[in-house]
């Protein structure tokens, strides 16, 4: 049996102003294996890094000198961030102004002027530390309305390349990769043959617009090749995952799809277990979370969906999910964020080694429920203090709350630190 994974709130960080309202959340490791958190302002479209260490949980804003100048008139248009994401290469480093090793930021923006809406992508390539390379800042005007975007690494000519996947209002996924010999600027991949190689079985139109995407790269234990897994969730409830090895000759791929209830709000592909089982975590605006598992024992293949029963609530849409696998946990943990501000924690019993019959209870148990004052937009999980027990970060429109496991040795709040670097400084020099 598992010990309950109960969460206790460590502290809540109020965001300094409405202009820092965030719509993305991603944890990254620096070379010293310290966690850093990246999030994006909804209104300003600027990435703000948060440094997490073991010296307290208090915001520290960089002070800036201002001259007394008259306020400029408001522009005749309004802009808002539709979606954003950020990635960094191996060994990425952090300096005063944030990510600094061949990182990529991507922001999808909607601009409204005189009742007309236009859209564009803002992409920023970050230069390596101690390099004379110039940051590449790029604006790409879009003839379509973007709904979601996801930054990942996909192969190009057998080289792993930063790749931007953008969900379009026409129910397709657009692919952007750096142009060879052109300072790393991105361009859309329009060649249908190349699109099919990058997104096998996903390069055609979907039954409805894609609302969420996730990717995973799994190295092969018996060969130098790797397998790419790409999953998509649609507004109509259509869910699919494709897995392929681009170095296999001919390229091998597998594809699976399902139809679930309600618009899919979040998906996550979890790394294979010790038995090689691949897991797919799915959240729905209909108010539930379910998992799919691909088994390598018995008949093999994907098993039936397993619903987290306590998550079923049609009046409380699920907005985000996050799974965690840590050596110190006796079973997997799944964290759920809802529109009513719930942060729910589920644990999976280790006695279940295969999907239970439909008449059996779910192997997932509800361990704890915390309540925040507004909808939980994003969740992130990481072992911030290095004790082997994950901390959970829940983001709402105006605050970030940090939880950790209850009934463990809880350190004083002063031993955690959350440092905010001013968003304007992060975006210094961008176009």
UniProtKB/TrEMBL annotation:
GO terms for biological process: actin filament organization; cellular response to amino acid starvation; negative regulation of TORC1 signaling. It comes from Triparma columacea. This is Uncharacterized protein. PANTHER family: KICSTOR COMPLEX PROTEIN KAPTIN. GO terms for molecular function: actin filament binding. Signal peptide: none annotated. InterPro entries: Kptn (IPR029982), WD40/YVTN_repeat-like_dom_sf (IPR015943), WD40_repeat_dom_sf (IPR036322). GO terms for cellular component: actin cytoskeleton; lamellipodium.
């Amino acid at each position: 049996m598992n010990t309950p994974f109960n969460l206790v709130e460590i502290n809540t960080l109020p965001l300094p102003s409405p202009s820092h309202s965030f719509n993305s959340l991603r944890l990254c490791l620096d070379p010293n294996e310290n966690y850093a958190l990246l999030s994006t302002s909804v209104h300003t479209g600027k990435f703000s890094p948060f440094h997490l260490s073991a010296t307290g949980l208090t915001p520290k804003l960089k002070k800036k000198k201002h001259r007394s100048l008259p306020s400029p008139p408001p522009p005749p248009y309004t802009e808002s961030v539709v979606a954003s994401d950020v990635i960094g290469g191996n060994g990425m480093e952090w300096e005063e102004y944030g990510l600094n090793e061949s990182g990529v930021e991507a922001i999808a923006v909607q601009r409204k002027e005189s009742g007309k809406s236009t859209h564009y992508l803002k992409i920023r390539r970050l230069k390596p530390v101690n390099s004379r390379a110039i940051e590449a800042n790029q604006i790409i005007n879009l003839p379509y309305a973007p709904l979601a975007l996801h930054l990942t690494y996909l192969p190009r000519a057998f080289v792993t390349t930063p790749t931007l996947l953008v969900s379009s209002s026409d129910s397709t996924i657009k692919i952007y990769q750096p142009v060879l010999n052109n300072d790393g600027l991105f361009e859309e991949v329009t060649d249908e043959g190349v699109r099919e190689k990058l997104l096998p079985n996903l390069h055609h139109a979907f039954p409805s617009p894609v609302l969420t995407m996730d990717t995973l790269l799994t190295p092969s234990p018996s060969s130098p090749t790797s397998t790419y897994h790409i999953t998509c969730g649609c507004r109509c409830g259509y869910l699919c995952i494709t897995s392929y090895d681009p170095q296999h000759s001919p390229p091998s791929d597998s594809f699976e799809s399902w139809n679930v209830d309600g618009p899919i709000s979040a998906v996550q592909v979890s790394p294979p277990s010790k038995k090689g089982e691949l897991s797919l975590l799915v959240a729905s605006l209909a108010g539930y979370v379910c998992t799919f598992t691909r088994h390598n024992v018995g008949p093999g293949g994907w098993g039936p969906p397993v619903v987290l029963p306590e998550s079923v609530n049609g009046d409380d849409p699920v907005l985000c999910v996050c799974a965690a696998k840590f050596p110190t946990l006796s079973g997997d943990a799944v964290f759920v964020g809802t529109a009513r501000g719930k942060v729910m924690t589920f644990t999976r019993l280790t006695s279940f080694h295969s999907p239970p019959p439909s008449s059996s209870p779910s192997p997932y148990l509800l361990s704890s429920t915390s309540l925040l004052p507004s909808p939980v937009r994003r969740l992130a999980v990481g072992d911030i203090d290095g004790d082997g027990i994950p901390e959970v970060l829940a983001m709402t429109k105006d605050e970030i709350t940090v939880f950790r496991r209850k009934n463990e040795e809880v350190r004083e709040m002063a031993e955690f630190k959350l440092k905010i670097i001013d968003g304007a400084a992060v975006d210094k020099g961008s176009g």
